[in-house]
Amino acid sequence: MRIGDELTPFTRRTDLENFNRYAAVNDEFLAHSMDDEAARDEGFPQAFGMGNLQWSYLHSFLRQSVGPDGRILQLDVQFRNPNLRGQTLIAKGKVIAIDDGVAQIELWTESADGSRLAIGSARVVAHS
Amino acid sequence: MMASLPFRQQEFQEEQMTQTYLTDVVRNAVGTECSRTVSYPIEASAIRRWALAVYWPEPAPQVFMDAEYAPEDFDPFAWGPASYESLLEGDDGSVVVRHGINERALGFPEWKFRAGLNGGMNCTYGVRMHVGDVITDVKSVGEYTERQGRNGLMLITQSISTWTNQQGELVKRTVNAGIRY
Fold it and tell me: How far is CA B34 from the centre of its chain?
């Protein structure tokens, strides 16, 4: 990794198939992730995915670049917009600093139209 | 100067301007350790299922199918703990709170919210989780703040979760932010 490198994007089309699989392993059967009507009752246009699932997607995104023997040391994420069902979610990021072998990554998820869904940062050690 | 508003709208606005979630009980609770939860030993099949679900529809990395170690985001408490103990005086621990903290046991007001959302997470990782590891999670109260949003007064909460393994090594420390309105 070098400063300025852009990490390989991680893309998923997110729909009920993704949300249900994640709910099954994480016992996270949230009504607003399963049912459009429940999401509308909370003020959203339709069902949306769990923040924890995006959190996992961001780990998967970082693993692509650090490799199986690399390490994620820290991840800090703020959710800004809902990951609506049917969206294509893309995780992206770039290396903004390297200090003593630890890379600082600026990262985010966005929908296909470029709207940011989550923003954050990570510290990783890549496998050399 | 505030423009004249229809009566109900004005009443609502005044209600929103004077209401606060941050009572003394809430403010004084910051830093309190609330619960200690112990997981069952981590199983290889749980690691595989987690990875298959998260990576779907692509295949999961072989390192997780071989269950050499668990993904950092894996939750060994997902389908219930081996034991749960409340650390709060007067709380018998009969109500198990997996995410966040037991606000009722802390004596917080019984708020009614329309929605509860995950605001974000900040996690620092230590050693990896492996098959057979038993993880202990100690939860404590983080900062509570409030902010006016388009849906009214929002309560923003932090719960702090510290995981250690059976050797007492730090697995991770997570600050979870919740948003309710």
Answer: 12
Core vs surface per residue A80-106: b (16+ CB within 10 A) or e: eebbbbebebbbbbebeeeeeeebbbe
B163 DSSP β-pair partners: B137, B172
Q: Scanning the structure block, which residue is given the tokens 């703020």? A: A78
What ipTM was predicted for this assembly?
0.94
Confidence grade of residue B2 (pLDDT, cut at 50, 70, 90): very low
Residue A21 is nearest to which of B53, B72, B119, comparing CB atoms?
B53
List phi, psi (to 5°) of A52: -65, -30
Q: How many domains does chain B have?
A: 1
CATH number at residue B173: 3.10.129
pTM: 0.89
Closest chain B CA to residue A25: B50
Structural domains in chain A, CATH included, are: 10-125 (3.10.129.10)
**Relative orientation angle of helices B44-55 and A51-66, to the nearest 10 degrees:** 90
Q: How many angstroms separate the CA atoms of B31 and B23, rounded?
A: 16
Contact A55 B55 (CB under 8 A): no
- Taking only the tens place, the pLDDT of each residue in B119-145 is 999 999 999 999 999 999 999 999 999
- pLDDT tens for residues B31-89? 999 999 999 999 999 999 999 999 999 999 999 999 999 999 999 999 999 999 999 98
Nearest to A78 among B50, B119, B125 (CB): B119
Residue B56 covered by a domain: no
- Orientation of helix A51-66 relative to helix A16-26, angle to 10°: 90
When mean pLDDT is compared across A4-18, A110-124, B13-27, B34-48, the lowest value belongs to B13-27
Q: What spatial distance separates the first Cα and last Cα of chain A, rounded to whole Å?
A: 9
